[in-house]
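Quick one from the shared queue. A colleague (R.T.) flagged NAC domain-containing protein as missing a structural entry in our internal table.

Convert sequence to C-alpha cells.
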Amino acid sequence: MGDVPPAVVVAAAELHHSPLPGFRFYPTDQELVVCFLTRKVLGLHMDLDIIPVVDYCRFEPHQLPGT
C-alpha cells in the first residue's frame, strides 16, 4: 500500500463522524434521555456528535442556533 496524503485521512475521518446525506434525526424523548443525555452526563464517547453543545447563557435568544 502506498502513502495516503494527510488530506485524504482527514476527509475520511470527517466523513466517518458526520451524518450521511439524507440522515434525519427525530429521537423520542426516551431516546434522548437514555441514549444521549445519560451518556453525556457519564462522559461516555459518542460515535456521532449530532447534538451541538451551546452555552446558552452567552447568547441572546435571537442569536441561538435554530431560532
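The chain has two helices and no strands.
Residues 29-42 form the longest helix (14 residues).
Added to the table.
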